[in-house]
Amino acid sequence: MKFQLAAALALKSTVASLSPFRTNLPNQGTGNAVSKRLELSQFHPKPFNLTSMCVECNKGPQGSSAFDCLIRFHWRDDNANESGACAESWVWDGVTTAIGAGNNHSAVYIICGDQADGGFFQFKFLDFLSLSNFSLSLTHMFRDTEDFSTPTMANLFALANVTLQPKGQSNGSLSYFADQPVLATFTGMTI
Question: What is the pTM of this model?
Answer without folding.
Answer: 0.71
